[in-house]
Amino acid sequence: MPLPVPKYPELILTPYPTLPATKSAEKLLRQLSDKELKTDDTYSVTKAGVTAPAGKNYLYTLAPYWWECNGKWERRDGQRNPFCDKADGQKQLQDMSLALHTLSFAAQALGNNDYAERAIKLVRAFFLDEETKMCPEVLYSQCCLGDDPVCGDKTFIISSRYLILASQAFRVLPMPDDVAGGVKAWVGAQLAWIDSSQQGADAKASGNNITDWLHALYASHLAYLDNAKAQEYAQGVLSSLTGKSPADTFAPELERTRPRHYTQFTLEPLFILAPIAGNGTPPPEVTAWLKGLLEFARTVPAGELEVDREADERFVPGLAWFDRLLARWEGGDVPEQEPDGSAWEGGWNQRARLSWALI
């Protein structure tokens, strides 16, 4: 049975924003940040409905494609088990990252110190305060309850990928010395864990979108700590990828149940990684390679599960984000008109419109 169409499209994560922000981006930054100022709530993995076996400070998520059937667990690719939402640490992480990203770039673009203070409060709660901080080691993400003991695996990067937005925010948010020092230590500890852990090694060796997202997160963290090292890292990764044809690049995803979805999901980390390699603008050969990937993506047919969810009127508008990025990098005319979002009941929400405006 085909998957239902959600009310809103999934958010596409994009590279470090274009600065200075456009007028349309400033307007959306102000609107969303003003909403954030109306609440005093913070975000924390410790607020999740279900917490990790080793303690509340670990990000704990359940692998979404595993289903219990007659006492046994089976994987159904592309079919999300709603039970996994009970461990909602990932939602806390994603909501924090989105709020922090919005507030930090609003403070930078609009000079509003209230936005910066609210952002710093979120940072303290999620990354620094002993009671509420998330451990940088992602040991219990994407767990299958059929495993004994319950533990995470290489797909930890999928549930933690929104931390890319947090790393982007750290680069512009003015923080007190103690906060900045604590954040740098946290980010450095997560990179060290990725380098030393089996989960990190497995993610790097996965050879599909898991590896691509791992590199995008790693390079984004490095861009905050040491931009020169980030550039070198991204260049090294891309040099090993740009020789691959589009068909080879997407091969692992084309064999899955939702080839259109996973093709677009692969484009996201590659487009995030690319400008880091060029310190803002991708090297020309990388841009040309990405262009080829995007053209190939347009030809991918929908799988049976996604014939409605990724029908042309929804799949093609999602690809427009990547067209806009390429136009920006190539110095051509960048379309201001948003893609048609009328194929979803709710259309583009404010955060999606901001993502578009920040390109």
From TrEMBL:
Residues spanning the signal sequence: none
Q: Which InterPro entries match?
A: Alginate_lyase_dom, Chondroitin_lyas
Mind listing the GO molecular function terms for this protein? lyase activity
Provide the alphabetized UniProt keywords: Lyase, Signal
Please tell me whether the keyword Lyase is annotated for this protein: yes
Where in this chain does the record put each Alginate lyase domain? 45-278
* Gene Ontology CC terms: periplasmic space
Asked whether the keyword Lipid biosynthesis is assigned, the reply is: no
Report the protein name in the record. Answer: Alginate lyase domain-containing protein
UniProt source species: Vanrija pseudolonga
Q: What is the lineage of its organism?
A: Eukaryota, Fungi, Dikarya, Basidiomycota, Agaricomycotina
